[in-house]
Design brief:
236 residues, single chain, disordered N terminus, 39% helix, 2 domains
């Protein structure tokens, strides 16, 4: 978003309404609604004497001919631009490099979960945790891992663990399936009646959301159990 031509160049970002600040707009509406100028402004963070960061970002993009020109600019070219110091140049370079790496990361590099053992191996570190942790392994349509998130820490019971917490990120990332995992600090991975009850509730919630709960893995000190492999709750 470009500032209105009537906006004085000395107006700082902090003096703009929240609805016009790039960072606040991103948090409220997501990055897709932001213009290239606003996204670059977030990366640059601050402006220069006499201009706020939106003006600076607008000037940078105009000088280099847009995003592609900025991405291909050399360090020397960036250093010659009035308003870009070494800190801002390194921020720009890091942002573009992250984008390149994300674009070249192929799905096959992400772990494939074909069975309970594959899932248990991904959360094996939970065996050493002193408190109960609940994690979700989010999977894509090919059963490759999208991410693994910790959604709860504390004593596991149905009164505190909500389906919304378990499925929230799956909904946000549009993941069709997930695996629930939690640890038993006692070391015994045998499922409790509470574990079974929670799994039943989450299975029902997943059907309503059209997100498949594939398994519930319980990690103990020396081994693990799978409710699905044990024939509990899950129908084959």
């Amino acid at each position: 978003m470009s500032l209105n031509d009537n906006t004085p160049e000395y107006l700082t970002i902090n003096k703009l309404p929240d609805t016009e600040r790039p960072r606040e707009r991103l948090l409220a509406h997501g990055p897709k609604v932001l213009s290239n100028i606003e996204l670059l402004a977030i990366i640059l963070r601050t402006g220069t004497a006499g201009e706020n960061v939106l003006r600076l970002a607008e000037r940078v993009l105009a000088h280099f001919g847009g995003i592609h020109g900025l991405a291909s600019a050399s360090r020397g070219e960036l250093e010659q631009f009035n308003g870009l110091g070494l800190a801002k140049i390194t921020q720009i370079a890091a942002a573009f490099e992250l984008g390149r790496r994300a674009a070249t990361t192929v799905p096959e590099e992400r772990p494939l979960v074909q069975n309970a053992a594959d899932a248990a191996a991904l959360v094996d570190d939970m065996r050493d945790l002193k408190q109960e942790h609940v994690r979700v392994i989010l999977l894509d349509s090919q059963r490759r891992v999208v991410t693994i998130s910790t959604v709860y820490i504390g004593t596991l019971n149905a009164s505190v663990l909500r389906a919304a917490e378990i499925y929230r990120e799956a909904v946000t990332r549009n993941c069709p399936a997930l695996i629930l995992a939690h640890n038993h600090p006692s070391g015994n991975p045998a499922p409790s009646p509470e574990d079974t009850q929670i799994t039943q509730s989450l299975l029902a919630a997943g059907k309503l959301l059209d997100i498949q709960l594939l398994d519930h893995i319980i990690i103990g000190q020396h081994n693990w159990t799978s409710l699905k492999e044990m024939g509990l709750v899950f129908t084959k």
